[in-house]
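Ticket #4471: structure output looks truncated?

Reporter: J.K.
Steps to reproduce: submitted the chain below (105 residues) through the standard prediction queue, then opened the result file.
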Amino acid sequence: MKYVTTLDNNYRNSYDELEEVAQVILDEFPDNIFDYYLNKQYGDVSICDFIYSASEALKEIDLDAYSEEKYKYKNSKANCIFDILQKMQKGDSKDIFGVLVEVME
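Returned output as attached by the reporter:
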């Protein structure tokens, strides 16, 4: 089967292997999904009477830590992504974490 991916900027590419498609999805993993997870997990942070979301505070205070945690989080989703891709059949189209995946012949 052939898998076609479309990114937000309408960049399209085709792949023969599920692993390649899964890697594209992981590479394009959006901040807002990770931010939602952080905010749900840790809630708001108070600094000198100002309130920030956990994701906003971590991103501004320690971008390296934010990037490292995002990397861990998105890679924890790799099996889920692979399972979704494996279940797709010819003619299927699905948005997976912001990447549109279509299955062709």
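Triage note (M.O.): checked the attachment and the full token line is present. The longest strand covers residues 99-104.
Status: closed, working as intended.
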